[in-house]
Specification:
single chain; disordered N terminus; 83% helix
Length: 405
């Protein structure tokens, strides 16, 4: 590598020392704990009741707080010191999970408690996630944002898929409460790491006299709407998330029913998706440098559409596994470029609100997609949700393409 190339690489790659390395470690540790909890909680719910609606309600409460508090979380993130907000939230989540672990160990867990815990954790997450998005640009140079986002998402994917997943059965042998106690410990460790960050932090514009949270939320929504690129990307992401909701809610039925591949086949498909996502994190920067951020997202969506069509029309496990690996790869390319575009294009002091408006609209699509997926599978066959997702991805790619060209 020549000196000029080395300088260019340094400019587009975040330094591990200092703030970014600590934030990355905190994010990965926290994701590891979250994955332990999310894998163990459905098993706990199933041991407490055999009512599918009650079990599904635990998952549904993971979406509801985003619809109720997502916009508020973004507005608060723009008002406060993001680092303090993040470590304070993690301390609260750590305490909540520690109390829940004690309740499980003593046999006091119930479906009502599970629902309350899931709701409270996600409500706190609305502030944490928006604050983290707003904090990152102050920790790495602007030209390294794309690489930083890709590394964050890749580390989280690896921790959740390849570390936490296989460990859950081992922890459950030690006791039903152990995964939740481990999750509590990861929150506390992440809080310490974030609290140790130093630096000026992102600049916050002085609040206007008499400004209210409602007015500031509206300002963030208008800023998102006025930016053509972000508005188009938000629309496309919402359409894709409806498709993702249909896919995720019925994937196990697609593999074990339509493909008749059993639980082993389902595990293989999920693993392929995780492996593809990790590779996507390694390639995201190169793809964005080659095609640009918006066109990189467009390419990712087009490839994902083809993957869904293949899954819904070819009745072979290996085709689905390969398609899901490529789908995961391009999904991380989409996500990394999406977050980076928000960070690059948001006006100073408004990133939290723009991020929250974007996320709230996009996340709202997932539960709608899950309902559509279940209904279409019951009405027209177990491969129908995948084809429904392909149609929604086609609409998303088409709408985004018309805005780019």
């Amino acid at each position: 590598m020549t000196t000029a190339e080395a300088v260019g690489a340094a400019r587009t790659t975040p330094a591990w020392r200092g703030g970014f390395g600590r934030l990355w470690t905190a994010a990965v540790v926290s994701k590891f704990g979250d994955a332990l909890r999310t894998a163990a909680m459905p098993l706990l719910a199933a041991s407490l009741t055999d009512d599918p609606l009650l079990i599904a309600s635990v998952t549904a409460c993971g979406y509801l707080p985003w619809l109720l508090f997502g916009l508020l979380g973004g507005a608060v993130a723009d008002r406060v010191d993001q680092r303090r907000a993040m470590w304070a939230v993690d301390l609260l989540r750590g305490g909540l999970m520690a109390a829940f672990a004690v309740a499980v160990a003593l046999g006091h867990a119930s479906i009502a408690v599970l629902i309350a815990v899931a709701f409270a954790l996600t409500a706190l997450q609305t502030l944490f996630d928006n604050a983290a998005t707003a904090l990152l640009p102050s920790l790495v140079p602007g030209e390294a944002l794309g690489s930083a986002n890709a590394r964050l998402q890749t580390g989280q994917q690896m921790a959740g898929t390849f570390l936490a997943g296989p460990l859950v059965p081992v922890l459950l042998i030690a006791g039903a409460a152990v995964p939740y106690a481990a999750d509590a410990a990861t929150y506390l460790l992440a809080a310490l790491l974030v609290a140790s960050l130093r630096g000026a932090g992102p600049e916050r514009q002085p609040r206007k006299a008499g400004s209210t949270l409602r007015a500031e939320i509206s300002e963030g929504i208008r800023a998102l709407w006025r930016d053509r690129a972000l508005r188009s990307l938000c629309t496309a992401t919402t359409l894709c998330n409806i498709g993702m909701g249909a896919l995720i809610a019925t994937l196990v039925l697609h593999v074990t029913g339509w493909l008749d591949a059993g639980n082993g086949g389902y595990a293989a498909v999920v693993t392929a998706y995780g492996a593809g996502s990790v590779v996507g994190g390694l390639l995201a920067r190169r793809i964005s440098e080659r095609f640009g951020r918006l066109r990189g997202v467009l390419l990712a969506g087009a490839v994902q559409t083809g993957c869904l069509v293949a899954m819904g029309t070819v009745r072979e496990l290996w085709v689905t596994a390969v398609a899901m690996a490529l789908f995961g790869l391009m999904g991380l390319v989409w996500n990394a470029n999406q977050v980076t575009l928000m960070q690059e294009r948001s006006p100073d002091g408004m990133l939290g609100r723009i991020s929250s408006a974007f996320r709230t609209l996009a996340i709202a699509g997932a539960p709608l997609g899950a309902l559509l997926g279940g209904a279409s599978a019951a009405a027209w066959g177990l491969n129908t949700p995948v084809l429904l997702a392909a149609g929604l991805f086609t609409l998303a790619v088409t709408s985004l393409a018309t805005q780019i060209n």
